Amino acid sequence: MRVMLKTLFLGAMMAAGATAAAAIERDPVGDQWIPDPEEQFLLDLQIRDRMLGDGVRAYDTPDGPCIVFGDFLTALDVPMKIDLEAQRASGWAFTEENRIDIDRKSGSVTYDSNREALALSSIKEVPEGWCVKAPALERWFGLNVRPNLSGSMLVLESEARLPVELAAERRSRAERLANRASFDMASLPQVKLPYEMWRMPAMDVVVAAGVTYSDAGGMRFDRNSAIYASGELAKLSFDARLLTGTQRQQGTFRFRAYRSDADGGLLGFLNATHFEIGDLDTGSTGVSNVAGSGRGAMVSNRPLRRLARFDEVSFEGELPAGWDAELYRNGQLLAFASPNAQGRYAFNDIELQYGRNEVEIILYGPQGQVRRRVEEVLVGDQQIPPGETWYFASVSQPERDLFDFGSRRRPATSNVRAQATLAIDHGLDQKTSVGLLAQSLLLEDERLTYAEGAVRRTLGNALVEATIALNSEGGQRYRARAVGELGGIDFGAYATVNSGFRTSAVEDRVKQEYGVSLFAPLKIGSKNVPLSGQVGWRRYTDGTSALAAATRLNMLIDRFNLTAELDWEKRSFAGPAPPTENLNARFAGSGRVGDVRLQGDVELALAGTGVNRAGISAYYSQSEYVAWDGGLVWEPDNGRVRARVAHIRNLDIASVAVTAEAATDGSVAAGFNLAFSLDAPRFQPTRTPLARTGSVHATVYRDDNDNGIRDRDEPLVKGALLTTGHTGRGDASDDAGLIRMAGLRTHSPVAIGVDTSGLADPTLVPRSALRVVTPRPGVAAEIEIGLVGSGEVEGMLLDGSGNPLEGVELMLVGEDGQVGGRTRSEFDGYFLVEQLAYGSYRLVLADASATALGLPKDLGKVFTLDPDKPYLRLGTIVADTPQLAAATP
């Protein structure tokens, strides 16, 4: 019957003169088969040893199984769209070059530069949409697709790892790192990085040159270079900066020698955490806003991550060209940044809320890279621990370099020839601390001394600070500040009164100042939108007063960061002059459209000239090594529009950019920029900045005799990856077993681990899962990581009544006291630990689980894994009374 129907169907088609190329033929087998959702199969999608997605649905048709296409695309995270009305599906699979276009109306399929006629039975219509046969999926996606309906499995095979696999591995590493973050860093093995009498510096080098032509200025040539070096001298860290230029830019050289230790203990009885000499780079003292920068010397025992100000904090870090940075505080987007001229991001004066502030900085790369940096900043209780005393002392010549070349024009603010500062903070109790600042200034023709006292106190959900400052001339300054939270709204307030007070040759012009700021996360749909506002009033010594208000709104919409700012100021004068009023607005946004990253901003003078500036820029990453950057800027004040285009080459050894610019006024410019770094002691060029960050050089080997030492006959291991918390990156270990990782935050301990998921031998694991390194600028920590064999341990955890214990966290503790593995029991009490290094272990409960069950941690089970017994079944473990019983396997 089926053959007869098919013959009749084909004969009718031939009689009508239709061809297969003109339209899809209807499948008589498919016409007879009616899909029944009650008879569909749910298959687990597996590739290698990994399950993907939540399964895919399938049907058993008379001519073989088919897979629901939408489920298949979702499980593999393939960006393809299916238009059932248009009978078409299009997109790309795994790489953007592999375009797939399925057109049922025209009866054709295009994939990976191939084109074929769509077979009669390749696609079935089912209630869920399209159901595609496995052979068609194999050709279109370049995979081996093997459905097994009886075993409820859909097995995929691919030589290369698919993007969805790599993403799952990244998530798995992130979960492992999250667990590691809860470990006590002090209990992990510490990698010592001793100071040396001389350590060759790592160097970051930037060379730029350009030519500009305009009708007014004619032809002008510029060139400049910057070299930043970090190394060690006389068992001190040092950094040096050499800047050279042309015309008005004369050369400068800055040098600083210092030592930092987050645990303190420097300089004997001073127990310092940091000291330096040369060109100081210290910023604020923390009690007052008097800077300690300039040539001189300073010492402090303050924590290295101490807040620079009462309720604000700043962050800075590396940001290559083409990257963007976003800053979140407690999950709220506050700011975003692009690379500056030095290839860094800077978030300055970020306001903090009362309590714990989790600040997360997310960096987005042009090829979809994502890096995260998380900082926790406390405002309130225990800001200065009870009974502790912190000090800061410095002597310096502000705004003067250690080495001056020629007579450089000094800034107008440089009227202080020398200064000496001593600041002390002391914690009285959990809620109260006091501070004292004394400073002596040598001005151009006089000496000025002043002292400031501060009291900080936590009151409810607010931190309040009151200060009184007196100078040697009888001048006085009174100041109060507060930051807190009330009814879900964060607030800040300040008040300052000056009476003849000055800290320089000129009296402070501000006589009185008052202000308040509010922060409220608005709920718009499912989004939390941070809205902030400030109002302030100032009176100056000449009788002028100013009332100002500002508001800021940030939104994140489909990977587009949008911000709107509104600033208003009304200034009144003491004389007959009428008041003036300004109202300015700024709108900015950044995001991605396809492969292009866009940024734009508009600045408006609403009460005056209208648009002050408008600009848009675009960055396109053609590949990992080639990128294009362009932009347009409208400058109404100058009556011109400027256009810029740059071509960027990111080579392994350097980053090179060539820029061309033109404006509507006839001016043109062209420039060249070369940036690279040299590591020490190899002095191999790389485009990764090295002098300002820490790095690790790890050698991975197979420790066959498990002695923790790399012996001459033990082979090196290729394909291992280093893992750290939220910073740093590195390629897999090379043929010499070497991994280089740069970009680590300096003077802050970081746990270093190794990811062995990409190794040819899946049983190899590190003997020590983690070790702690405290990176220093420009210095590579040399470590060796030995890999040993591993096995598996499984068992069943029951209570005293024989019922399974679900969700109990178990740890396997080695003879050295280190945790070798962790797991959690499943609903039936079953637990499994994979890739557990050979050795002897005891099974214990995690603290939280032991507390919840009311049992001691030790489960009384000790076992050994070795090459002769790599897979061990512990049988039933009964967690009952303090006298735990372990059943015989």
Query: How much of the residues is beta strand, in percent?
Result: over 45%
Tally the beta strands: 59
- Sheet with most strands: 24 strands, antiparallel, barrel
Give the averaged pLDDT, no decimals: 82
Estimate the helix proportion, in percent.
Answer: under 10%
What is the molecular shape? globular
Structural class: mainly beta
Number of helices in the DSSP assignment: 6
Task: State the distance separating the first and last CA atoms.
Answer: 62 Å
The radius of gyration over CA amounts to 34 Å
Uncertain stretches of 5 or more adjacent residues: 1-30, 174-182, 283-291, 408-412, 882-889
What do these coordinates show?
By secondary structure, the chain is mostly beta strands. A hairpin with a 2-residue loop joins strand 36 and strand 37. Residues 1-30, 174-182, 283-291, 408-412 and 882-889 have low confidence and may be disordered. It has six helices and 59 strands.
Question: Which descriptors apply to this entry?
Answer:
889 residues, disordered N terminus, 59 strands, mainly beta, single chain, 6 helices, globular
Task: Compile the SSE list and pairings.
Elements: H1 2-16, H2 28-32, E1 41-47, E2 50-61, E3 64-68, H3 69-76, E4 80-83, E5 88-92, E6 99-103, E7 108-111, E8 114-117, E9 123-126, E10 129-133, H4 134-141, E11 144-148, E12 153-157, H5 163-181, E13 198-214, E14 218-233, E15 236-244, E16 252-260, E17 274-280, E18 294-300, E19 312-318, E20 324-329, E21 332-337, E22 344-351, E23 355-364, E24 370-379, E25 389-397, E26 416-427, E27 432-443, E28 447-459, E29 462-471, E30 476-486, E31 489-499, E32 510-524, E33 527-540, E34 545-557, E35 560-572, E36 580-593, E37 596-605, E38 610-621, E39 626-635, E40 640-650, E41 655-663, E42 668-678, E43 685-686, E44 694-702, E45 721-723, E46 729-730, E47 738-744, E48 750-755, E49 765-766, E50 770-773, E51 780-788, E52 790-799, E53 809-814, E54 819-824, E55 830-837, E56 839-845, H6 847-853, E57 858-865, E58 871-879, E59 885-886
Parallel strand pairs: 1-12, 44-51, 52-58
Antiparallel strand pairs: 1-2, 2-3, 3-10, 4-5, 5-6, 6-7, 7-8, 9-10, 11-12, 13-14, 13-42, 14-15, 15-16, 16-17, 17-18, 18-25, 19-22, 20-21, 20-23, 23-24, 25-26, 26-27, 27-28, 28-29, 29-30, 30-31, 31-32, 32-33, 33-34, 34-35, 35-36, 36-37, 37-38, 38-39, 39-40, 40-41, 41-42, 42-43, 44-47, 45-48, ...
